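User: I'll paste a sequence; please echo it back and then give the predicted structure.

Assistant: Echoing your sequence first, then the prediction.
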Amino acid sequence: MKAVVYSQHGLPITDARSLYDAQVDQPVPGPRDLLVKIRAISVNPVDTKVRAGSPTDQPRIVGWDAVGTVEAIGADVTLFQPGDTVYYAGSITRPGSYAEYGLVDERIAGRKPATLSDADAAALPLTSLTAWELLFDRLGVPEGGGDGASLLIIGAAGGVGSILTQLARRLTKLRVIGTASRPETGDWIRELGAHDVIDHSRPLLEGLRGIGVPHVEYVASLTHTDEHYAQIVEALAPQGRLGVIDDPDTLDVVPLKRKAASLHWELMFTRSLFETKDMARQHEILNRVAGLIDDGVLRTTTGEHFGTINAANLRRAHALIESGRSRGKIVLEGF
């Protein structure tokens, strides 16, 4: 089958060897696996981080978001049948979605939203799971709750921020404050439902005070946490909660003590990585998100469509993500 792979980590994305087209064997499903014929994918920052930083002794397929048709199922599968259309973000320990066929455990796949195209649906799985788990499972905001409290989303225009903004606005009573540094990304965040937008290239406290918010009960730090950390600690209300998804070199929790503030890590891959008892929670979340999309409560976060799935287009996508100037999700479709 066709696939896009890398064999040598650390190459600049301008190097044609950083991602290249290849032929690889088609995978065979295990007991709880779906064999999916992939129709569309999207690109996430984790794709670029693995390609750049993870050594491999053989060609490796990255990419985890996918939409496709179930071609075959393992002996113990109960949630899907051949012919079903699914979307999923997969497992970090398995070959990724830059391929014609992929395997995914049924417990972390969901039914594709019926009202979306394949490409628009492919924009959603990884970021929806991350945002949902961060907001409801990690920060502990109850659905319908948060009245009188504020959520600051640092990096709200990115993939996770684009869906987190919607979830917080549509499913809670929180005041949603997003950060952006460019007019077009600020407009995007407002369009998705943020009550306020502040500029993260300027001091966060200055921005918050400018909208009459002295402190926030919740912070979702999605990018550049280490750069903003001192200001985040100041901006947090006593007993506030900080959720983090990015990869700071280090994070000193001691400054949180005085306010009895708590730190919550979110990694979407944790449930599949450790096959936790609640691993099927991701199947439930994806189905819930699909329902909210089909009911018009949420919308896709597609930013740009980069054409067919091939190495050249994926190198362009990785370059844009690495530039830090992407808005929403980059999607690709067909081989």
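The first helix runs from residue 45 to 53. The mean pLDDT is 96.
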